[in-house]
Amino acid sequence: MSRSDVLVDADWVEAHKGDPGVVLVEVDEDTSAYDKGHIRGAVKIDWKKDLQDPVRRDFVDRAGFEALLSERGISNDDTVILYGGNNNWFAAYAYWYFRLYGHHKVKLLDGGRKKWELDSRELVTDVPSRAATNYQAKDQDTSIRAFRDEVVAAIGDKNLIDVRSPDEFAGRLLAPAHLPQEQAQRGGHVPTAKNVPWSKAAEEDGTFKSDDTLRALYSDAGVDFGRDTIAYCRIGERSAHTWFVFHELLGHPNVKNYDGSWTEYGSLVGVPIELGDGS
Amino acid sequence: MSDAAQAVADGCGAPAGSSRVTEAGNQAVVQGTVTQDGSPVSTGYARLLNSGGEFVAEVPLGADGGFQFFAASGDWKLRVLAPGGITAELDVTAAIGRISRVEVIV
What we know:
The complex is a heterodimer of chains A (279) and B (106). By secondary structure, chain A is of the alpha/beta class.
């Protein structure tokens, strides 16, 4: 797999954004960003409202994903180009999510919304109208999604990569005070996890660092590329960014994103937790 | 680093800079605006780095060129990115209970 299979740059988007079979999708946490201006032709997906079950803590089910993509006018044969704010965190999350439901023709705009803005490229407020489709999803591919028991079983065995900030990793911080519903009961990290903050994988304009730099980053942190890997953060969006790096850019096959992440693990009864800055 | 600075680093809000507190309370607030020739720079990003230059948080600038972080007491670097390859970097010292203002002219 090469970068061109999974990433496009802004020039490519400028040249192909009107092509049949190409759908641009902006995925933001702050959905007002899309409303203020987006790449011409892009549709919006709200990572929370559209991708999360409204009652249980889980994703929308297969039928829900089919309904969402059908309504947005995305068909099975379309190449979906995802981009968003926050250095593409939620776009990477959506990328992983599309892959989870079997959509393989999906790419990220390298640098996301930030680089597009910094390059002074056009943003418009017109909302495109796309004809509804009859999207057919597949069952979830759980070879890329980790659940809590796998994480506990992975301690001391698989690579566990905690991509949160050093303060969260150490247990000095739990979570933002204004989001109590996503707060874990305990701070710290999964024992044996390595702390490699997501931000180290990105340049300041939001683009991904080179493959060689990325490989060195994780090797230097003690990640053994010969082992399977589980990445986690707080709610699974920053670790989707790191999943993308491992699975899509560096081509490691056995990599899972643990979307339960610290908000789940840090609330489990009886599981081991390690404090401090780690080794 | 405070919870709120973490909130930004976490992707739990990345609040646009227009909305800013007027009292620090128990937070170490870093806020300010970015201007060019006296006009606000409304498209761009403010990044908070720790004293070692490591990334901590980032917010898009508000319509008035504003930004805000909830840091912890100590020394920080504020870095601004704006279209046209514009960058600026300033040192800022934050303290609990205080609003540290940074006016950035690019």
